[in-house]
Design goal:
about 30% helix; D-Maltodextrin-Binding Protein, domain 2; binds ligand PBG; about 325 residues; Double Stranded RNA Binding Domain; single chain
Length: about 325
C-alpha cells in the first residue's frame, strides 16, 4: 500500500480549488491517495507591493522549497506565475488541460468595456492589462489594485470601482463566472503567457513520480504554454515592457498547427509591437523564441517601461 501523495498548495481559495482539481484527476487516473498540504508564502502574508518582496516568484519559491525539503511530493501552481528560468532540481511533470485563457471584465450594471462611460474607474494590478486597456482609447481611468479574486470583485460591488479585469479561468474555477460581464477577445486583450493553465511540479530526481504525473499532461496545452513562455523569456531578455501572448493548437492544411499571437507594449499603451506566427506544435519553443526575436527586431527592444501605477511592478502578472 503506497503512502498518500502530499500535494503542496498555496492556501488561497483559488489555489486550493486548483489543487483539489489536480488531486481529483490524480486519484482518478492513478488510483493513488492524495492529501493537500497548505504552504504559506510571503506573498500571501505581506501586503506590500510584490515587486519589493521578489515578484510572483515568492508564491512559487515557497512551494519549491517545500518540495526540495521533502515536505511535499508535488506542487500545483498557476502556470502564469512561474518565472521563465529553469529551477534547479525541479521537474515540470505535467501541464493539465487548460481552462479558458482569456481575460474577463466584471463591471457594474452588466456593462461591457465599450459601454463604460469615459472616466470609468477600472481596477487591475497588471501592467499588461493596464497597457492594453489604455490602448483601446476609451478614456478609462485605470487604477492599481491587489488582493485575491473576491477582494477585487468586492471593489465593484461596493462601488469604489466601475469594473475590474481578471482571468476568466480563475473566476470559473471559483464558480464566479456568472459575474463576468464580458469575456475579452484576445484581439483586444492578449492574456498573460500561461494564463488559464496549471503547472504540476515535483523533484526532478523522483523518477517514479515524474512518470506517474505524466498521466495528467495535456500535450497541446504544454505546446501552447511552451511557445508563450518562449516569447516571454526572449522579450524579457531584450526589453522590460509588458507582454501578452496566446498560442493555440489549430487544425491546419497539414494537420495540427501551433498559432501564436503576441504583443509587447509601452506601459502607457501608446506604443506596441504585435505579431503572430505559426509552426509545428513539436517545435513550440522554437516558434515562440523566433517570434520574440522578430518582435525585438521590429522595435520591441526600443519600448521602454514607463512610470508604473502605484503598487504595481514589472513583468507578466506579478500582481494580477
Ligand atoms: N496573478 C494571480 C493569478 N494567477 C493565476 C490567476 C488566475 C488563474 C489563471 O490565470 O490560471 C490569477 C488571478 C488573475 O489574474 O485574475
Amino acid at each position: 500500500m503506497n503512502a498518500p501523495l502530499r500535494l503542496g498548495t498555496r492556501a488561497s481559495a483559488l489555489a486550493t480549488t486548483q489543487s483539489g482539481h489536480v488531486a481529483a484527476m490524480l486519484r482518478e487516473r492513478t488510483g493513488r491517495e492524495v492529501e493537500l498540504v497548505e504552504v504559506t508564502t510571503r506573498g500571501d502574508v505581506d501586503r506590500s507591493p510584490l515587486a519589493s518582496i521578489g515578484g510572483t516568484g515568492v508564491f512559487v519559491s515557497a512551494l519549491r522549497d517545500a518540495l526540495l525539503a521533502g515536505e511535499v511530493d508535488l506542487a500545483v501552481h498557476s502556470l502564469k506565475d512561474l518565472p521563465t528560468g529553469a529551477a534547479e532540481g525541479i521537474a515540470l511533470a505535467a501541464v493539465p488541460p487548460r481552462e479558458d485563457p482569456r481575460d474577463a471584465l466584471v463591471a457594474r450594471d452588466g456593462l461591457t468595456l465599450g459601454e463604460l462611460p469615459v472616466g470609468s474607474r477600472v481596477g487591475t494590478g497588471s501592467p499588461r492589462r493596464a497597457a492594453q486597456l489604455a490602448a483601446l482609447g476609451l478614456g478609462l481611468e485605470i487604477t492599481a489594485i491587489r488582493g485575491n479574486v473576491g477582494t477585487r470583485i468586492g471593489h465593484v460591488e461596493d462601488g469604489r470601482l466601475d469594473a475590474v479585469v481578471l482571468a476568466q479561468a480563475g473566476l470559473s474555477r471559483l464558480g464566479r463566472d456568472g459575474e463576468v460581464t464580458e469575456v475579452l477577445d484576445p484581439f483586444q486583450m492578449l492574456p498573460a503567457p500561461g494564463q488559464g493553465a496549471l503547472a504540476v511540479e515535483c523533484r526532478a530526481g523522483d523518477e517514479d513520480l515524474v512518470a506517474l504525473l505524466a498521466a495528467l499532461d495535456h500535450p497541446s496545452t504544454r505546446a501552447a504554454v511552451t511557445a508563450e513562455r518562449a516569447v516571454l523569456s526572449t522579450l524579457e531578455a531584450g526589453c522590460s515592457a509588458p507582454v501578452g501572448a496566446l498560442a493555440e493548437v489549430v487544425e491546419g492544411d497539414d494537420g495540427e498547427e501551433l498559432w501564436v499571437r503576441a504583443v509587447v507594449m509601452s506601459t502607457d499603451g501608446a506604443l506596441s509591437v504585435r505579431m503572430s506566427a505559426t509552426g509545428s506544435p513539436g517545435d513550440a519553443h522554437g516558434v515562440g523564441s523566433r517570434l520574440g526575436q522578430e518582435m525585438l527586431a521590429d522595435g520591441a527592444a526600443d519600448l521602454m517601461e514607463g512610470p508604473q501605477p502605484e503598487g504595481s511592478d514589472r513583468v507578466g502578472e506579478q500582481h494580477a
